[in-house]
Amino acid sequence: MATTYKKSYIGKGTAVKGLDIVKVTLKVEDLLKVTHEWNGVEYLTFELAKMQQKDEFGRTHTAYVSVREKEEEKEEAEQQKKAAKETKKAAKKAKKAEMEPELANGDEPF
What we know:
Elements: E1 5-15, E2 22-26, H1 28-33, E3 36-38, E4 41-43, E5 47-50, E6 61-68, H2 71-99
Antiparallel strand pairs: 1-2, 1-6, 3-4, 5-6
């Protein structure tokens, strides 16, 4: 099963003319929502990508955080799918049993 990610956009930036630098503006409030902790230290990992075209403010780059979808949510969805499949299978089996004539001691019904 492939791991899926959800992008949370946190800001935009502009390439600095003549330099290999991108000036980025990020809203602290949004950053606090996507930090993670490892060994007791808080980190923020984000990606900066060049946009296909400049936006109305001349910004050339977008910043986002790729958040892995929670395994628990994926597992829960799979379990619900499996339970629905089993319920459908049991209903089909019950319907088939209703349609078959009862046989006493393995004798044929005629």
